[in-house]
Write a structure and sequence with these properties.
Number of strands: 18
Order of helices and strands: EEEHEEEEEEEHHEHEHEHEHEHEHEHE
Radius of gyration: 20 Å
Helix content: 25-40%
CATH topology of the largest domain: Quinone Oxidoreductase, Chain A, domain 1
Structural class: alpha/beta
Number of helices: 10
Strand content: 25-35%
Number of domains: 2
CATH superfamily of the largest domain: Medium-chain alcohol dehydrogenases, catalytic domain
CATH architecture of the largest domain: Alpha-Beta Complex
CATH class of the largest domain: Alpha Beta
Shape: globular
Distance between the termini: 13 Å
């Protein structure tokens, strides 16, 4: 079968002819239609991820067909464990260490396979799993939003941030966004956000506070210097939830603002199997359509990775594996 494989640290990603997955008890081999990229794939390809093994087929998101020709979606987070609050030590994500979805066939645990939402195209289905469960747990499970509350989403344009936006709009929240790209802010406003700011502006916090009057929730993927400004723009009893840290260590955070305003900070990664099922039901109930930025053929994987590396995308970048 054809597959995009991370061959070695020096050889990088290559399109290879690779053996079919071996049948294993408790696993199904499914035929991939479309597979979406995540920043996880980019970081692994650059060697910036813990425990990388070579060779490995990347890819965590997939729309596929099972042996009965049923169109399916896969929960890519394996071995969550028994504690709904946190993943187990054996938790891992499809696409490393186990071979992932950038291939014509992939082997996945039977209990992680679900019928794909009927209102979505194959590309849209593939755009959903990792971003969808991460967004759902971060916003719905951790923050427990109430209709009419104000929410700030940082770094709009990425897959998770856009899923948070779409979930928030379905829940009737007042959504504001930040980005370094004005066009992405405008696109978010067209989707239903009430406003947005460029986080490269030194007084972005003052501007977004003027726009909103303050926030009940902030969902962040970056950390870094900007995080220290969050308490200032939070209302009392606000919740801050983060699912990434691309900007690194948080400094100059005022504990006084945190405890006096009774602000809660939550970390969140992926989600439990029951939360994945809840997320799918939410998607179906509100007929949410994940935003696809672009679609590339499997052989053109380099263009897809370059698109992600450029940070220009608005939505998910998808590989059409069936062509």
């Amino acid at each position: 079968m054809r597959a995009v494989q991370l061959v070695s640290e020096t050889q990088g990603l290559q399109l290879v002819d690779w053996p079919m997955p071996d049948p294993k008890e408790g696993f199904n081999i499914i035929q991939v239609s479309h597979a979406a990229l995540n920043h996880r794939d980019l970081w692994i390809s650059k060697g910036r991820y813990a425990g990388i093994k070579y060779p490995v087929i990347l890819g965590s998101d997939v729309c596929a067909f099972d042996e009965n020709k049923r169109r399916v979606i896969v929960n890519p987070g394996f071995n969550w464990g028994d504690d709904p609050r946190v993943q187990s030590k054996s938790f891992h994500i499809l696409g490393m260490p186990e071979h992932g979805s950038f291939a014509e066939y992939v082997s996945v645990p039977v209990q992680h396979i679900y019928s794909a939402p009927a209102h979505l195209t194959d590309a849209q289905v593939s755009a959903l799993p990792l971003a969808g469960i991460t967004a759902y747990r971060t916003l719905v499970i951790k923050c427990k939003p109430q209709a009419g509350e104000n929410l700030l989403i940082t770094g709009i344009g990425g897959g998770v941030a856009l899923m948070v936006l779409q979930f928030a709009l379905a829940l009737k929240l007042n959504v504001y966004v930040s980005s370094s790209d004005h066009s992405k802010i405008e696109q978010a406003i067209q989707l239903g956000a009430k406003g947005g700011v460029n986080y490269l502006d030194s007084k972005w916090d003052v501007e977004v506070l003027d726009q909103s009057g303050g926030f009940d929730m902030i969902v962040d993927s970056a950390g870094g210097e900007s995080f220290s400004k969050f308490p200032k723009i939070c209302k009392p009893a606000a919740r801050i939830a983060m699912y990434g840290g691309t900007n690194g260590v948080i400094s100059n955070l005022s504990p006084q603002q945190l405890f006096w305003k009774q602000i809660s900070i939550y970390g969140s990664t992926m989600g439990s199997p029951s939360e994945f099922a809840e997320m799918l039901s939410f998607i179906i109930q509100f007929k949410i359509i994940p935003i696809v930025d672009s679609i590339y053929e499997l052989a053109d994987f380099n263009s897809a990775f370059n698109r992600m590396n450029s940070k220009q995308q608005f939505g998910k970048i998808v590989l059409n594996v069936s062509k």
